[in-house]
């Protein structure tokens, strides 16, 4: 068979002649594309390649039973020798088992389907069999034939036609025959990317015949969209082949003696064929990998993906750089703003400091001028040092300036000028005292209002809870009374036990109903429950500390000496009432000291009151209040503040001032106390208070501050 022919005599003289033009592509089914062997044969006929395999090797490579036309011997012996420009990789020649065919007969050739072969369908096979039967049936072919050999040949040929039809109509036998039919297993492994579709396209189409899934996607061309290219490679990477690889050592299933024997043979044959299937899968997988590496569309896609990744990376880097620049600019702006704010704050602080220093210096000058004026002339002070201190500490800078201006505006000389200065200073003192008294009264009023508001709020809350609580039944009220009698005051967790006894009410509901029935507040109920605490502190002051103008009712108060004369009958009556009120509270054993007789509170004057008695008098609010008024009326009749001598009226005024000015005033308390004690300043009042407190504590033998003013307050 000649693939390429050329007659030199047909060449025209002096040139060339076009005898025909290239025809368009003609669709043709059932034909294999020219492969590796076609190239070798064409090169051999052109004198460009010589087969190095000796003729004896060709016979060894060719099928032992003559299964089809022989192939070029050099193709199997020299698989690694590639043609120019293309590398080919072919399977090694292996000994394979084929379907038994008499005399090497080809079933397709016997039925006249040599061209269609594996592409022939059932209808074509049936039609070809009928035609072959009509042609080769002995009843027709042996008409007029007397030769016995010819008769035997015709009958044998007809049997071969029947066997061929039997093989091609049995799916398993036909699949096995098609798998062992002559096929070009060589595949390209590399080529120039521009020749990819010319080299790898036919190879893909040849091997598509083994696909179990149909239709098989085409390779396409360079303009094929990437979605189709991706589907194409997905198909081939998951390629399912129906190709069988019979092994020479297999046993014939038809020779089985029983069903179990048949199954054992099938399992054994399947194991023998498994290696061939694995080799086939590896061959196709390597082929697809090589195609994927060389495919220019894949390379272009990878390059596009790389450029896209680099573009996104550059965009992210640019965005990060811009964000960093913005962040740096923002931080720089914030730093500048912070520095500017710090500079401004520093400047304002410096300005405020200068203003304060100037105001302080001006106030210092004003105080100095005020002290000079208060010194008077001829060694006679216009007002005491404590009064000067009160004016300088209580007046604002504007008030101090106005006072100094008023002092400077006074006319006259000598005693007249001193009297005018004194009048101005005393007027300033009266204004300060009036303002302090008004502030104290306002605080007392606010405190009382707050207490009243809290009390009203508690009552309103109690009423709200009572309204929200469902109505108590008679049985529940009876159980509540019974529980209160069963668990008296002093019982541990009394109200929990009462609530458990009632069972239908919660603890809060029980407490609300008990308070409502007894008309008691929460404070009163708590005080009633803490009966042991009342026994532990029998001498504790039980008067409310929010009303300083009222006297205590459970502390003995004795008025002696000049204080009793100044207070008069009103003070004596108040002391008597206080003692009478304190007597019932002191009836308990070891509760309180015995109350003094009424006459003793108004009599027994003395020249100087002892320190302990003065401290006891500090506990009586009513007597102290009356003493403060009497002391204020007797202002100027006792010794000056700088002498350190305290009269009885001044001590009583101190006690009353301590009761009237609570600790809540803070730093202003002692200024207010000094304003209510005639002839004494803040320092003198505080010093005398500590002396009285220490003396009373030492007399009580360390009773724990119960008689001290600070503790009472």
TrEMBL record:
SMART domains: DnaJ, SANT. Pfam families: DnaJ (PF00226), Myb_DNA-binding_2 (PF23082), ZUO1-like_ZHD (PF21884). Residues 467-512 form the SANT domain. GO terms for biological process: 'de novo' cotranslational protein folding; regulation of translational fidelity. One of its GO terms (cellular component) is cytosol. Keywords: Coiled coil. InterPro entries: DnaJ_domain, DnaJ_domain_CS, Homeodomain-like_sf, J_dom_sf, SANT/Myb, SANT_dom, ZUO1-like_ZHD, Zuotin/DnaJC2. Residues 49-100, 303-342 are annotated as: Disordered. Residues 106-181 form the J domain. PROSITE patterns: DNAJ_1, DNAJ_2, MYB_LIKE, SANT. The keyword Coiled coil applies. One of its GO terms (molecular function) is ribosome binding. The keyword Coiled coil applies. Residues 91-100 have a biased composition (Basic residues). Residues 638-693 form the Myb-like domain. Residues 443-475 form a coiled coil. Transmembrane segments: none annotated. PANTHER family: DNAJ HOMOLOG SUBFAMILY C MEMBER 2 (PTHR43999:SF1). This is Uncharacterized protein. It comes from Edaphochlamys debaryana. The lineage of its organism: Eukaryota, Viridiplantae, Chlorophyta, core chlorophytes, Chlorophyceae.
């Amino acid at each position: 068979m000649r693939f390429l022919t050329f007659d030199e005599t047909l060449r025209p003289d002096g040139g060339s002649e076009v005898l025909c033009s290239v025809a368009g592509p003609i669709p043709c089914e059932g034909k294999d594309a020219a492969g590796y062997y076609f190239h070798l044969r064409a090169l051999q006929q052109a004198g460009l390649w010589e087969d190095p395999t000796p003729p004896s090797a060709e016979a060894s490579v060719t099928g032992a039973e003559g299964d089809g036309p022989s192939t070029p011997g050099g193709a199997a012996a020299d698989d690694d020798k590639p043609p120019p420009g293309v590398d080919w990789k072919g399977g090694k020649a292996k000994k394979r088992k084929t379907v038994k065919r008499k005399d090497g007969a080809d079933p397709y050739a016997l039925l006249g389907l040599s061209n269609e072969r594996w592409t022939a369908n059932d209808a074509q096979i049936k039609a070809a069999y009928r035609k072959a039967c009509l042609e080769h049936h002995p009843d027709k072919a042996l008409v007029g034939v007397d030769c016995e050999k010819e008769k035997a040949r015709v009958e044998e040929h007809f049997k071969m036609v029947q066997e061929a039809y039997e093989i091609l109509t049995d799916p398993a036998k036909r699949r096995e025959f098609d798998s062992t039919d002559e096929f070009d297993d060589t595949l390209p492994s590399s080529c120039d990317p521009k020749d990819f579709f010319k080299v790898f396209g036919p190879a893909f189409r040849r091997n598509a015949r083994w696909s179990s899934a149909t239709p098989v996607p085409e390779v396409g061309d360079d303009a094929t969209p990437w979605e189709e290219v991706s589907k194409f490679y997905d198909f081939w990477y998951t390629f399912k082949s129906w190709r069988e690889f019979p092994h020479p050592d297999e046993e014939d299933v038809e020779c089985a003696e029983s069903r179990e024997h048949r199954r054992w043979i099938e399992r054994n044959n399947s194991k023998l064929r498994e290696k061939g299937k694995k080799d086939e899968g590896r061959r196709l997988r390597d082929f697809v990998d090589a195609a994927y590496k060389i495919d220019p569309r894949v390379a272009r896609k990878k390059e596009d993906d790389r450029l896209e990744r680099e573009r996104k990376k550059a965009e992210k880097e640019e965005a990060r750089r811009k964000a960093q620049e913005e962040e740096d600019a923002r931080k720089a702006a914030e730093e500048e703003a912070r520095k500017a704010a710090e500079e401004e704050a520093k400047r304002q602080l410096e300005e405020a400091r200068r203003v304060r220093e100037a105001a302080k210096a001006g106030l210092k000058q004003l105080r100095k001028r005020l002290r000079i004026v208060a010194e008077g002339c001829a060694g006679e002070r216009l007002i005491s040092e404590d009064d000067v201190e009160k004016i300088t500490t209580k007046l604002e800078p504007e008030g101090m300036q106005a006072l100094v201006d008023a002092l400077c505006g006074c006319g006259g000389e000598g005693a007249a000028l001193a009297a005018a200065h004194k009048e101005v200073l005393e007027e300033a003192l009266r204004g300060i005292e009036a303002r302090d008294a008004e502030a104290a009264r306002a605080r007392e009023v606010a405190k009382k209002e707050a207490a009243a508001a809290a009390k009203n709020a508690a009552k309103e809350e109690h009423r709200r809870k009572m309204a929200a609580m469902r109505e108590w039944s008679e049985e529940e009220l009876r159980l509540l009374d019974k529980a209160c009698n069963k668990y008296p005051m002093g019982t541990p967790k009394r109200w929990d036990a009462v609530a458990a006894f009632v069972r239908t009410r919660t603890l809060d509901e029980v407490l609300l109903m008990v308070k409502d029935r007894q008309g008691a507040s929460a404070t009163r109920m708590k005080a009633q429950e803490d009966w042991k605490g009342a026994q532990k502190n029998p001498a504790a002051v039980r008067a409310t500390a929010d009303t300083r103008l009222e006297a205590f009712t459970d502390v003995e108060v004795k008025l002696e000496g000049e204080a009793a004369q100044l207070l008069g009958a009103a003070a004596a009556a108040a002391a008597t009432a206080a003692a009478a009120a304190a007597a019932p509270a002191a009836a308990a054993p070891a509760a309180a000291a015995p109350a003094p007789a009424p006459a003793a509170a108004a009599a027994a004057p003395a020249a100087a009151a002892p320190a302990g008695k003065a401290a006891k008098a500090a506990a009586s609010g009513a007597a102290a209040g009356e003493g403060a008024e009497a002391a204020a009326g007797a202002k100027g009749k006792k010794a000056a503040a700088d002498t350190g001598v305290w009269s009885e009226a001044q001590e009583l005024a101190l006690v009353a001032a301590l009761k009237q000015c609570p600790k809540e005033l803070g730093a202003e308390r002692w200024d207010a106390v000094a304003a209510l004690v005639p002839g004494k300043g803040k320092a003198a009042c505080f010093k005398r208070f500590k002396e009285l407190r220490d003396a009373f504590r030492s007399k009580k033998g360390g009773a724990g501050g119960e008689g001290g003013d600070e503790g009472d307050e």
